[in-house]
Amino acid sequence: MREVRRGERKSRRFTKELRANMTEAEHKLWYFLRKKQLGNCRFRRQHPVGKYITDFACLSEKRIIEVDGATHGDVHEIIYDAERTDFLKSQGWRIVRYGNEDIYKNIEDVLDDIYAHLKGLK
């Protein structure tokens, strides 16, 4: 077992809390991402990267999938998301974002798009 870094305990507790309180859209998408169902890629939900916690992350492909709700249109959220995206990209991650409505109404298109990103087609 590896040593827990300072501040990581709090992050782990918070990620467990987020997993237990996923949004409806996150639950719907997780149903299709779990157990290597999409492109045989393993995803983690609420995976910490630095000081940020991603919605879904595929470590082997360095892909992050974010599910954005209504609050992501707020000016402060837009600025926060841009800073967060810049950090994640600086760490070598590629980020794909989908709105809740896309997941509710077009889940097949979302899954096709994620697959294309995973396989380097986009």
Structural summary, described in words:
With 122 residues, the protein is α+β, with helices and mostly antiparallel strands. The protein has a four-stranded mixed β-sheet with strand order 1-2-3-4, sandwiched between helices. Strand 2 and strand 3 form a beta hairpin. The chain is globular and about 30 Å long.
Key structural traits:
single chain; 122 residues; alpha+beta; Endonuclease, Chain A; four-stranded mixed beta sheet; 4 strands; 20% strand; globular; disordered N terminus
- The percent range for strand residues is 15-25%
Number of spatially distinct domains: 1
Q: How many strand segments?
A: 4
What is the CATH domain class? Alpha Beta
Overall geometric form: globular
Major sheet strand order: 1-2-3-4
At CATH level 2, the architecture is: 3-Layer(aba) Sandwich
Order of H and E elements: HHEEEHEHH
- Give me the CATH fold name: Endonuclease, Chain A
